[in-house]
Design goal:
Helices cover 65% and strands 0% of the residues. It has 427 residues and is an all-alpha fold. α2 packs antiparallel against α18 and α4 packs parallel to α8.
């Protein structure tokens, strides 16, 4: 334990294990008040400790992975098989249990049949404005008419899209065991969710959106504006959580690579958003985006009011599981439920803006120029995401798949670039 606490990589690993314990295996183990803090506060402190670390390699070694790749895909295949067996107990077509996958199916079927996509959904017995952006459901369209479980398809895409980043990180690990763990990490994370959050995993396709972030990680590590731009199109058109961190990226590219790659990347992102979303969908239903955001607030209010099956006086189920800071605002902020939710949204947005500006300021001033670029970029994204997801209005367990996936990449990157695990940061 002492050895781990003396270096950034060890600290990041301990934080990741703590997050898995509190979010996946034993949610709320430390209580509704303390558990949410233990998930995100250590991440911020650890990142600033990392920025002060001096012992970095000038270039990480590159090893041949060889048969380790076969082991990785064997593990992926095994997890896909186990998941398929587990999911047989969960009817993902039942909107009364969860409307996530039914909504994906309806939007995809509308596209295939030539019907308007972003009109109100009434098939579930209640009114639901489509809240999903195109890259949230488009990747499932090719298999809608095939005998394919969309949950398994999402996992397969997760494994495929994460492979470039995993190979990059695994090849640069000093220890063979670290390389193997890096390659197997996505399969291990899925397995942990099957153990600790089976119900949520049984109704979710969140793995796809985590894959988009690992594609971005690959672009950051390669310092490739094209790859980053493609990943950003996917991210911004699925869940746009990172939008307030985004200025850090073009600022870094402009300072390190010049304005040309920034212009190219910006063109790809804008063109992707316009061609995939604005022209085919938003232009026909310009009110759909605003309706979706309004429904998120309405849905949060319903969750904060408690579930129908709960006893009178019980705390709302989804925000009293120790998974997010919503509990703090529910209990401490005076006023009506809408006023408490508004207070949470203000702190959520305000804190995210401040973090984005702070990281951009660090980059502009080159305050931590001794830190490898990839470490700064991924570390700032990692810290930002944990703050963002911790202050989300309704902290469903499956939502944390995204920041946990980024945490895995963060730990692997630190082990690849850290030169002296035994060297104090002051030396």
């Amino acid at each position: 334990m002492r050895r781990l606490l003396r270096n950034p990589a060890g600290i990041a690993l301990l934080i990741l294990l703590l997050q898995i314990l509190l979010l996946v295996l034993r949610p709320g183990l430390a209580g509704n008040w303390l558990s949410p803090l233990l998930v995100w506060v250590p991440v911020l402190f650890a990142f600033f400790f990392t920025l002060r670390w001096k012992a970095w390699k000038t270039d990480a070694a590159r090893h041949n992975l060889g048969s380790k790749r076969l082991l990785q895909w064997g593990a992926f295949g095994f997890i896909l098989f186990v998941s398929a067996m587990v999911f047989r107990s969960y009817d993902s077509t039942n909107a009364m249990q969860s409307d996530v996958i039914p909504t994906v199916r309806i939007l995809g079927e509308r596209l295939l049949s030539g019907k308007p996509v972003y009109v109100t959904i009434t098939e579930f017995g209640y009114i639901l404005p489509p809240t999903y952006l195109p890259m949230h459901w488009l990747p499932f369209v090719p298999v809608l008419h095939l005998p394919v479980d969309l949950r398994i398809w999402a996992m397969l895409l997760f494994f495929l899209l994460s492979t470039p980043a995993l190979y990059w990180l695994a090849r640069r690990q000093s220890a063979p065991n670290a390389s193997i763990l890096t390659l197997l990490a996505p399969a291990l994370l899925v397995g942990l969710y099957l153990l600790g959050q089976r119900d949520d995993a049984g109704y979710s396709v969140e793995w796809l959106y985590a894959a988009y972030y690992l594609l971005l990680v690959f672009g950051l590590m390669k310092e490739n504006a094209w790859i980053c731009a493609l990943a950003l199109v996917c991210i911004l058109l699925s869940r746009f959580s990172l939008v307030l961190w985004l200025p850090v990226l073009p600022l870094w590219f402009s300072m390190k690579k010049g304005l040309k790659p920034v212009a190219i990347a910006a063109g790809i992102v804008i063109a992707g958003i316009v061609l995939i979303y604005v022209i085919p969908f938003l232009s026909r239903f310009p009110e759909s985006f605003g309706n979706a955001q309004a429904y998120y607030t309405k849905g949060a209010l319903m969750e904060w009011d408690g579930q129908d099956w709960q006893k009178p006086g019980d705390h709302p189920y989804q925000i009293s599981r120790g998974l997010g800071m919503a509990w703090w605002f529910y209990r401490l902020v005076p006023g009506s439920l809408p006023e408490r939710i508004l207070a949470l949204k203000m702190v959520h947005a305000g804190g995210a803006i401040l973090l984005g500006l702070l990281f951009a300021f660090f980059q502009l001033r080159q305050t931590f120029s001794h830190v490898p670029s990839g470490v700064f970029l991924l570390g700032s994204l990692h810290a930002y995401l944990w703050y963002f997801y911790s202050f989300i209005q309704v902290p469903y367990p499956y939502l944390f798949i995204v920041p946990l996936t980024v945490s895995i990449a963060w730990v692997a990157l630190l082990y690849a670039w850290q030169a002296g695990p035994e060297t104090p940061a002051s030396e």
